[in-house]
Amino acid sequence: MKLDFEHIQAAHCENGVTTNLLRDIGVRKMTEPLAFGIGSGLFFVYVPFLKINKGPAFAFRTMPGLIFKRNCQSLGIPVIRKKFGSKKEAEKFLNDCLAAGHPVGCQVGVYYLSYFPKEYRFHFNAHNLVVYGKDEDNYLISDPVMEQVTTLSGYELERVRFARGVLAPRGQLYYPKAIEPVTDDQIKKAIKKGITRNVRDMLYIPGNIAGVKGIRYTGKRIKKWRDNLGLKKAGLYLAQLVRMQEEIGTGGGGFRYIYGAFLQEATAFHPDEQLIEISGRFTKSGDLWRTAAVQAAGIYKGRLGSQEDFNTMGDYLLEISEMEKQAFQALSKIKWYP
Amino acid sequence: MKKEEVPQDLSSLGKITKEVCYAIDGSGKYTTELSRGWDVKINALDVAWQDIGERVEAARKKVLNNEASPLLYFMELRLMDIGILAAYTGFWKWQVKKHLKPAAFKKISEKKLSRYAAAFNLPLSDLKSWNLNEA
Lengths: 338, 135
Description:
The structure holds 2 protein chains of 2 kinds. Chain A contains 11 helices and 8 strands. Chain A is an alpha+beta fold.
């Protein structure tokens, strides 16, 4: 059994699943940048005391699951979402969904994901893919970060759906319910909401480790890494930062470019020249993140290593923080009435 | 980033699939371009794997010196930490910590050991015979 499902490749997995599932139920205007922006996907957080693979925890986007949830909420689309205690039940529910004609999104762990190259398979449990059919024992898989669709055996799918550890998926699956056609006006309202919420998350989140303040904080910390951690560990930390920023499914520039694309696409629903100008600022910020990544690579490859090099690295982040702060401040001033 | 500047350095992922990148065209409009990978990313991943290699080697030595049980070696080899291993086996973290000590490891029942073997995706015999093979 194979459902009629259009596989569109995306830069980021959750954006891609959201876009493809919403397009499938008739929201034909949905694109990856729109899904990312409506879901207020842009974020930054550095949690120094939380360790992932023995390195510090960074994130360049919002919490897993929120992009899909916020899109559906803003567009008034009901969501079916289920987690399971038993593997058997999880498989039965999946089969029933497919039989009823619903392609479904699944949260999976990457460690046992057989079609990924080994180098990329860490214990990371917030990857998303769509199951859109079954061919004997093989499930048909649309993984949005892959160019082509692929398959997983029943056993392989079960293993990734029941990966354990932080953010364990527990077989979680979800799909949007088809409803009345979504109007342009609804999309415009969703865009407005997505932007306002993103302004809030980046500018006004309490504490100093998240949002634009988090970028600044990280920049300041990096300058001390050389003395506090030693060159080797500091290099590992910087490699971790770059991996989180540029890991598969970020579209490069740590999501900043996707956000820039979103603001350009938003003008189709809310024609305002300001949005184009602010989009340019996010492009610049994305460029600077990439420049910073090159600097970081100089350090973890051992080409650079003086305190001066760490200062330069830290200063890049301070500059980015200021840049994004101004961009979001400009966004908060956009007028939304017709 | 301009469309022409999207890096094309072949990565291990690039052999399987190209990645979508957002970039601007000549008129400043966003578009997508496929990338085969980027050296900066490839190096960052190499650094991570080098570190894993070193940790596995250090764990191997600890096991040989009887400072840790073979579980430590396999835990590092499978990129796990105590939390992940506890989650896969269903033991508490303190139990896993205890089992990482050689003396406590010797006393683990076969049934419990097989839970570790399943978590490591190994035959039970490999887990049991590790010391013998390496010593």
